[in-house]
Every structure is written in C-alpha cells, then in structure tokens.
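S.,

As promised, the protoporphyrin IX containing FE run. Input:
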Amino acid sequence: MSATVSPLLLALREGTRACHQRLEARLPFFSEGFDRAAYADLLGAYHGFHAPLDLLLGAYQSAERHKTPTLSRDLGALAIDIEALPRCHALPRIDDEASALGVMYVLEGSTLGGQVLKRAMAERLGIDADNGGAFLDVYGPLTGARWRSFLERLAATAPEPAAQARTVEAAVDTFTCFERWLEKRRVLAC
Ligand code: HEM
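Predicted complex:
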C-alpha cells in the first residue's frame, strides 16, 4: 500500500516490529480448534480494550475512527451481552498529541491486518460483516484512505526528538497493554 513514509513512521515500525510479531504469533485466529465460540470470546476481549481507549482518544480523533460501535454490533450478532463484559483498566497513557499518535498508530495499523483476518474468518468460520465480523473490516472500502490520512497526520507532526520518542513509547505500551489484557482474559493461543 503506497503511503507517506515519514521518519516517525519508520521509527514506529522499527520500535513495534517485535511487539507485532509476538502478538500475531499468540493470537488464536489460525489455531486448530478455533471456532465461533472462541471467536466470540476473543472479540469480547477486544471490546474490553477498545471501549475505554475510544473514550481516552476522544479529544484526539474523530468519531469515525471509533471501533466500539462496530465491535458492539458484532457482539450483538454473536449474542454476547456487552454490559456484562469486563473492561481493561491498565491502558497506555494518553496525555498529549504525541502519545495519542502512538496509540492510534497501533489501532489504525490493525485495520490493515484486519483485511487478512476478514478473509480467513469468512473461509474458516463463515463469519462476515453481517454475523459478527464487521470489526475485521471496520472501515470497509475506506481502509486505505483512512490509513493514508493517518500517515499524513504523522508526517505533519513536528520532528521534535522527545515528542517522537513519546509516540514510539506509547505505541509499544499499547501493544504491551493489549497483549497483557488478552492474556488476562485467557483468549491467546499460547
Ligand atoms: C493474527 C493477527 C494479525 C495479522 C495476521 C496481522 C497482519 C498484518 C499485516 C499483513 C500487516 C501489513 C498490512 C499492509 O502493509 O498492507 C499488518 C500491519 C499492522 N498491524 Fe497487524 N496483524 C495482526 C494483528 C494485529 C494487531 C492485534 C495489532 C494491534 C493491536 C496490529 C497492528 C498492526 C500495525 C500497527 C500495522 C501497521 C504497520 C505499518 O505499516 O506501519 N496487528 N498486520
């Protein structure tokens, strides 16, 4: 996907590569025995992380980037009671634009991997946008455009080293908090 490659993007990629690899290896989407019930549990755990983060990111991103409404719709389709789901409290700190950008990088980037997961879940579990899989393609045909506009925002930030370091740190923290939360919810494969 061609897009604006800024020094900050390169630093984010380098800083989080190992985090992504580790989490991807632990997620159960491609595990043997991963079924609809396990998918519903996993999506419920995603909701517990995204719902409080959407609130924390409120001042830094427009509502069109909120993931919780789509997750809630999917969970409804899977007959999961959203009110009963636990929410994560150990979240990355978001106290300025620099840290918000780091958190957003992780959440926005996950919409790219979602394209792979969307196809896999349709094939393996028959789950699509109407019966619990809308989150995997949360932006639909706007996925590429939303990613590019986020990269433009990254590229337009001041190249101040301390702020850039805070962005990368927030991105790493986001991966770490998410992995710990999924582990706590016992939805990881290993
Ligand atoms: C099994 C699960 C996952 C798979 C198979 C996967 C796969 C991918 C793939 C193929 C890309 C590159 C897409 C492209 O360049 O067009 C990508 C990018 C990315 N993914 Fe994942 N992903 C997974 C889970 C996640 C999760 C859970 C997160 C974060 C919560 C995440 C965060 C990212 C980020 C930040 C990028 C953007 C990297 C960049 O271009 O700078 N991924 N993923």
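The domain at 7-184 is CATH 1.20.910.10 (Heme Oxygenase; Chain A). Residues 1, 13, 20, 23-24, 27, 29, 105-106, 109-110, 112-113, 116-117, 178 surround protoporphyrin IX containing FE (CB under 6 Å).

- D.
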